[in-house]
């Protein structure tokens, strides 16, 4: 049956080919045959796993699958599957263990440095070192088919000598700058941190319970506190945080120390906190804080069957607490109040630090098993099904995570995280962000895969789960207990369950008007339609039976079809009909508004035409008025000139003009005298020339130097005369004016 999960999108592009070819890979087929042989064994020999299965992880575009029979990893290249090569379905690399673990491996975990892989079981833990890469395609040891890998047993002597202890949870220390460390939580309520350089001796040991309680041992070595749920079941690291230095007991100039908060979940629902830092070895760091107060308080402390905890990578930290019954609690970690009474004696001095509080933002119940429609004449069956839940982060979307369990896969998206950040970053008096946060709808829960659609069938647990975040496209890859490979493409962001509306599609050619931008900024109608189309349940992918003999009876198949039909009717068709009525009503209103706007538009056009004619008339009048104004200004100038000329008293400018004329008159007299002198000299020179040209007198012979001097003097005098004549002409012109 097709899935209606909102996280899935149609496969397209280069990633479509490898998604289609991956289920037919030689490794998947081989593991599927081994699982079929194991299923043939009697049911009494098949025990329920002590830990949730997780035997697959990815590294870039490569997928690693663990084979328990061979104690080896199979490395599959997804790029070769997407390239369409003819032998891509049979190409893989086998990573053999030189010293294979003697315990059964339930989970695998890749280190932050991507160099080591932790093999986790209930009776031990080992670390496999990945080989070096080289060659054209950057394959392990140049592409060799089979490679021997070294194994580092962790706490081997400890688990061998303590047969009653079991490993409950293990995770890598998040620091990438230090040497790899791994953190172990055992059934004796103790956390031990081991380094790969000294795998037999713990670097740090943190006891989570009192020694007096541990002395009360019952049968099979189980502590007395385990019966009332006061044992830790899981933990998770938060992002790097800064705490005051006085809390750690250090002395120095620095005011803060960077540490990793470690959130520890107990089976009774209580959460404890430990600040860890392997760089700072102080007395206060590593002490147990808690239990963290939870608000609002609940009588059952939000369940007594907690099984998993996950800290989303955001500030403030958001904890996800899961229970075996399918309940999820989204808690926001904020600073504690001074009046919190739940202060533990296990924490350090309360004067130096306050325990943070957990504010339960919302509770979500997962539909582990499908709720079928009851038969006619019979009461609905209440299926009391519970199983451990494993939480997975989404590498592409920080506000989304995934839940895997024996009955299938759920995906949860928190859409209110950005509203929470806006509220925490606003002022104390800003109530708008608080109202937006309160009006924000709850998270989106998407039932992607159901492996137990009917109560008569045994659940097919999830053996492996991984999100491929390579350029091939974000894709969910999961393996069931029968090694059936299921791939689903995902979006890279949290989105509503309903499909996008046509009004939200962007048109690059259309030019938006200011009124449309103002209307779209409020988008109340779009929000109303989205609220109507939002779905509370969906039809997930249903895993079919492997053989025909185990097929369900026709009555239960009819119930399954009735359930799917009811979901389609109530969650799809009915809501689409309601949305259609709202849209039709909206269309009627918009048509009436359009009619009124067309009438207003015609009126505006008439007004524009009349205003244009009036503007033309006003322009003509303006030109006429301007010409008349120029005439009046010229007449006023003439009147003012005549008035000034008839005044008996001279003005300042006239007085200045009079002085200037008198000065010019004096200059003319001097120039006249100079002209007379020049004329007299000219006559004298002429007479001299005439006498010199007389034949009676002997000719005077001049040397070349004398002639040159005479010519220079005459030239200078001529220029002087020319300048004087020019001045006289200028004076005459000025006086005549």
Distance between the termini: 112 Å
Secondary structure class reads: alpha+beta
Helix content: 25-40%
Largest sheet, if any?
5 strands, mixed
Q: What Rg, in angstroms, do the CA atoms define?
A: 48 Å
Please list the strands of the largest sheet in the order they lie side by side. Answer: 1-2-3-4-10
Taken as a percent bin, the fraction of beta residues is 15-25%
The helix tally amounts to 13
Question: Describe it for me?
Answer:
The strands form 8 sheets. A 5-stranded mixed beta sheet has the order 1-2-3-4-10. Helix 7 runs antiparallel to helix 8 and helix 12 (about 650-690) packs antiparallel against helix 13 (about 705-735). The longest helix has about 90 residues, at about 555-645. It is elongated, with a radius of gyration of 48 Å. The chain starts with 14 loop residues before the first helix and ends with a helix. It is of the alpha+beta class. Strand 2 (about 60-65) and strand 3 (about 70-75) form a beta hairpin.
Labels describing this entry:
about 725 residues, alpha+beta, five-stranded mixed sheet, 13 helices, about 35% helix, about 25% strand, disordered N terminus
Offer a quick outline of the entry.
The chain is α+β, with helices and mostly antiparallel strands. A hairpin with a 6-residue loop joins strand 25 (390-393) and strand 26.
Map the helices and strands.
Layout: H1 15-21, H2 26-39, E1 56-59, E2 62-67, E3 72-77, H3 78-82, E4 93-97, E5 107-110, E6 116-121, E7 124-129, E8 133-134, E9 139-140, E10 146-149, E11 151-154, H4 156-161, E12 167-172, E13 181-186, E14 190-195, E15 198-207, H5 211-214, E16 232-237, E17 241-244, H6 245-248, E18 256-266, E19 271-276, E20 294-295, E21 306-312, E22 318-323, E23 327-334, E24 357-365, E25 390-393, E26 400-405, E27 408-413, H7 417-425, H8 432-439, E28 444-450, E29 462-468, E30 475-480, E31 485-489, H9 514-522, H10 524-533, E32 541-542, H11 554-645, H12 652-692, H13 704-736
Parallel strand pairs: 4-10, 20-24, 28-32
Antiparallel strand pairs: 1-2, 2-3, 3-4, 5-6, 6-7, 7-11, 8-9, 12-13, 13-14, 14-15, 16-18, 17-18, 18-19, 21-22, 22-23, 23-24, 25-26, 26-27, 27-28, 29-30, 30-31
